[in-house]
Amino acid sequence: YPLCALAVSDERPVSTQSTWEKRVGLLMNAYNSISDNDELRQLAEVLLYAGNYLNAGNKKKGGQYIFKLESFLQFSGTKSNPKTYNLFQYCLKYCQENRPDVLKITKKMEPLLKCIKVEKEALEDAIAGIKESLDNVKGKLELFSNSDSSIDGDEFVPVMQKFYDESIKKWNKMNGDYDSLGGKINKLAISLGEKKTTWEEFYSFWREFIEEFDKNLENLVKMQKEEAKAKRKAAGGKKGKKPDKKAKSSRKKPAGKDKGEKPKKAGKKKLGKAKAVDAMDEGVDSDEDKELQELKRLQAEDPSVLDAKLQKVFKGIDKDGSGLLDFDEFKVAAKKFDMGNPEDAEDVKAAFDSVDVDGSGTLDFEEFKAAIVTALSDQHKIAGVRGKMNKMFKSWN
Predict the structure, then answer these.
(1) Residue 233 has pLDDT above 60, yes or no
(2) Would you list the DSSP string of 42-101?
(3) What would the mean pLDDT of 31-36 be, rounded to a whole number?
(4) What mean pLDDT do residues 44-49 have?
(5) What is the distance between the terminal CA atoms of the chain, rounded to a whole angstrom?
């Protein structure tokens, strides 16, 4: 042990080598998240097509076959007329409909964010320092191996030789990976119309791109929801509710006329109780229970089939066909699927807000599906769903 300490006491500790190996690994993963990114290639195709279309007839700007790196950040500056979507958002809208995988692009580029704290100068100093320490160990191993004096039972040379052999092998790989990274990044940058660059500068650009992409996609979705809400309002949402109420009252009137009595509040309460009892009676039916179990099975084993069923339910509730449900439309689903107490407006609103993750006041299909899946998974609520779910699916089939 004294000899082992002597060998490395005056040098930098080589025990930190694994830390720097991990950092080089993070840099390599970040490079792969760009070079092996098919979604990025698809986005570049869409942007290149849009650029060529807008510059048709321009010999300098149109008819391009190469997409330059800087162009990824320039599309946001081109506004439509009227000024709503910018050109980048328009291309994202196209991808929503035709290339949905592109919308997951920043998820695939997350390794770029994980290496943000790696500093080029510190990393290169550490790699050089580790090599210097290992060379020192090698020199002292040679010195002790050639020495005539030895101590019985001293395992210093074989132990340190094994340590050195393993460490230098790892260092060679780390250094080789780091050296090759620089060449790969320069090659990729040049193919995108850039000059030679460092990995720090190259990765910094892509982090800026990730921020720009997420910001534009978030604003696009927000505008789409606002447009759908305005469309629903222009279609006259309130006027659409009155006929439903009249239709319900007209169905109840014949029974009242036959008896020669006017509807009373007490009668309404009794009807409500009778309806609740009927629903419970339906739930006792084993066929209804089997259907519910089938839906739970689909949720666990075949989500795509469950999605198809829920799509039909969603379209049935979405009366104006906007692709979004407002709170009034959601109340229909809440009553059918027993999400919250239908007699308690605050309870239903809480159920609505719990899945309205973006706070837009409307639910898209994915948010609606999350609410239903939660209801299916909640054993306390399942008892209240029972036959009502089966009837609802059948009515929209």
Answers:
(1) yes
(2) HHHHHHHHHHHHHTTT-TTTSS-----GGGGGTGGG-B-SSSSSBHHHHHHHHHHHH-GG
(3) 94
(4) 89
(5) 79
Q: For residue 248, what are its two tokens? A: 């319900």
Residues 6+ apart with CB under 8 A from 223: 84, 85, 89
pLDDT band at 251 (very low <50, low <70, confident <90, very high): very low
- pLDDT given for residue 178 in this prediction: 95
Tokens 């097509």 label which residue?
Answer: 49
Q: What is the pLDDT of residue 166?
A: 93
Greatest C-alpha distance within the chain: 123
Q: For residue 347, what are the CA distances in angstroms to 20, 331, 339?
A: 53, 11, 9
Query: Minimum mean pLDDT among 131-135, 138-142, 225-229, 387-391: which range?
Result: 387-391
**DSSP character for 363?**
B
Helices 87-98 and 38-54 cross at an angle (nearest 10°) of 130
Q: How many residues does the chain have?
A: 397
Place of tokens 């306390």: 380
How deeply is 91 buried, as exposed, middle or buried, from its count of CB atoms within 10 A (0-12, 13-18, 19+)? buried
Contact (Cβ atoms closer than 8 angstroms) between residue 223 and residue 84? yes
pTM here is: 0.56
139-164 mean pLDDT: 80
* DSSP H helices in 235-361: 242-259, 265-284, 286-301, 303-317, 327-337, 345-355
* pLDDT at residue 221 tops 90: yes
CA 185 – CA 195 distance, rounded (Å): 11
- Burial class of residue 102 (count of CB atoms within 10 Å of its CB; 0-12, 13-18, 19+): buried
Please report where in the chains the tokens 């720090």 appear, as a residue.
200
Report the alpha-carbon distance of residue 336 to residue 338 in Å, rounded: 6
Residue 395 has pLDDT above 60, yes or no: no
Distance CA 333, CA 326 (A): 11
> Strand, coil or helix: what is 184?
helix
Give the model confidence (pLDDT) of 190-215 as tens digits: 888 888 899 999 999 999 999 999 99
